[in-house]
């Protein structure tokens, strides 16, 4: 994927040489001749890399001051200083102030290309590390040998190299985001960003700012939105059904002409973004009710990809349990345990309404609870948390009466989850309406659902 590089220099020759060499390498370049035009270019669209001259005649800010300004707005944007013979010391001090490197005039094309590549690679690695930290539990590949997962893998391989828009359909916790990340990794945009915007976790009022950013006012700085952040990469719109109707109209326009305006501005920002969206609920019924634009649905779901619920691929459960055990033992320093066949059978028989996320949460609890029993004893069915063993209630008999007991907290959680699932279904999957009905803030409901493994 070509990278967008901004070259800032007051000398036209240098601008042309630098951008010419980089364009020959397949990069997209833009130029600016002073601090104002550089800041304007950056606010049109944030580039991936900036080459910045230290001495610029007629510029309001000199190179170092402009570097500070750029870094204060975009701390992760790499900047390479272009220094003349006499100002190496300034270049060195620029590095202390956050520049990635410097290149001394006159320079050879090879050196310029090398520095650009290193700077781009370095910032890509930094982004990846941040991503990895965020999703440290994610496996690199889909776990499972079921037909459903094998087909899903094949679909991912087929759709990744194309540029088509994908809609991932599947219940909460089934691995939709993981699938989207895999498509990103296997696509030609792998070097570009992967940005997530969860429509269910953002209030409708804040949605447009989150997506389009704000132009900023004299007292308030400009903010880039998810669309701009994902330029050259992939934007993952999670829970697309929750997108407010008005924002849907604007997204449709972005899809048509790949341009948008920041909130409070009229300048058009051009972006090159591939959109992957996802939904856990039936969008068709939402469309029928008028809650979702049908034309937008068709544009987003050029290729629909289905992620099956865990209950439809029970044969994968032993592999997942094994992987989570190892992962949790590494992360939490708890020794992995053997798991008895009876316990595995219970785990495989469970319906897992919260899918893989819920399975993982339960394995974690199980490992923590079983910790004191000695590392070598296998986990047996009676050690399973009650939530898993809801088919294994503690039943006692008094006379001819059978009494079922569940620990209070777990019983509450279980009923709370079932209750919330029932309400969500009743409102056709619309989180806003469910939240209103159950008297919770939308984001609080979203957090609650995640914590209950829904
Ligand atoms: N096939 C799989 N193999 C291993 N781990 C998986 C698999 N599928 C999902 N997971 C793990 O399960 C958890 C939930 O997955 P993910 O967040 O992708 O689900 P989701 O469908 O996007 O959920 P939501 O709809 O709530 O956003 C993650 O920790 C993910 O790493």
TrEMBL record:
Keywords annotated in UniProt: Activator, ATP-binding, DNA-binding, Nucleotide-binding, Phosphoprotein, Transcription, Transcription regulation, Two-component regulatory system
Domain annotation Sigma-54 factor interaction: ranges: 142-368
SUPFAM superfamilies, A to Z: CheY-like, Homeodomain-like, P-loop containing nucleoside triphosphate hydrolases
Domain of life according to the entry: Bacteria
Record-annotated membrane-spanning stretches: none
Residue ranges constituting the Response regulatory domain according to the UniProt record: 4-120
Modification 4-aspartylphosphate occurs at: 53
Pfam (any one): Response_reg
Gene3D superfamilies: 1.10.8.60, 3.40.50.2300, Homeodomain-like, P-loop containing nucleotide triphosphate hydrolases
Name of this chain's protein: Sigma-54 dependent transcriptional regulator
């Amino acid at each position: 994927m070509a990278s967008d590089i901004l070259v800032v220099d007051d000398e036209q020759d240098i601008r042309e040489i630098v951008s010419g060499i980089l364009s020959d390498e397949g990069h997209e370049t833009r130029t600016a001749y002073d601090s104002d035009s550089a800041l304007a270019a950056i606010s049109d669209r944030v580039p991936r890399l900036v080459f910045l001259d230290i001495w610029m005649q007629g510029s309001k800010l000199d190179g170092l001051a402009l570097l500070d300004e750029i870094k204060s707005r975009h701390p992760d944007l790499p900047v390479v200083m272009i220094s003349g013979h006499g100002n190496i010391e300034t270049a060195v001090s620029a590095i202390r102030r956050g520049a990635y490197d410097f290149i001394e005039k006159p320079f050879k094309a090879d050196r310029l290309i090398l520095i650009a590549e290193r700077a781009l690679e370095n910032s890509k690695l930094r982004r990846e590390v941040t991503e990895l930290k965020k999703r440290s539990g994610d496996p690199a590949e889909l776990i499972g040998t079921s037909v459903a997962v094998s087909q899903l893998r094949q679909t991912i391989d087929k759709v990744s190299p194309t540029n088509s828009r994908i809609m991932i359909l599947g219940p909460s916790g089934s691995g939709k985001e993981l699938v989207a990340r895999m498509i990103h990794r296997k696509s030609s945009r792998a070097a570009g960003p992967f940005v997530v915007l969860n429509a269910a976790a953002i209030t409708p009022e804040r949605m447009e700012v989150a997506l389009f950013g704000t132009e900023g006012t004299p007292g308030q700085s400009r903010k880039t939105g998810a669309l701009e952040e994902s330029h050259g990469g992939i934007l993952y719109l999670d829970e697309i059904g929750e997108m407010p109707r008005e924002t849907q109209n604007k997204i449709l326009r972005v899809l048509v002409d790949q341009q948008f305006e920041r909130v409070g501005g009229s300048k058009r920002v051009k972006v090159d973004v591939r959109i992957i969206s996802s939904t856990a609920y039936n969008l068709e019924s939402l469309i029928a009710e008028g809650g979702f634009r049908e034309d937008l649905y068709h544009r987003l779901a050029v290729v629909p990809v289905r992620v099956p619920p865990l209950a439809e691929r029970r044969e994968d459960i032993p592999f997942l349990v094994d992987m989570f055990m190892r992962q949790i033992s590494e992360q939490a320093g708890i020794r992995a345990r053997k798991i008895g066949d009876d316990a595995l059978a219970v785990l495989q028989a469970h319906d897992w309404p919260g899918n893989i996320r819920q399975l993982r949460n339960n394995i974690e609890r199980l490992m923590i609870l079983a910790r004191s029993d000695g590392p070598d004893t296998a986990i047996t069915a009676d050690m399973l948390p009650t939530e898993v063993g809801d088919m294994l209630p503690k039943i006692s008999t008094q006379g001819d009466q059978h009494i079922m007991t569940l620990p209070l907290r777990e019983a509450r959680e279980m009923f709370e989850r079932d209750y919330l699932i029932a309400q969500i279904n009743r409102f056709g999957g619309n989180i806003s309406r469910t939240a209103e009905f159950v008297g919770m803030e939308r984001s609080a409901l979203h957090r609650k659902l995640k914590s209950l493994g829904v």
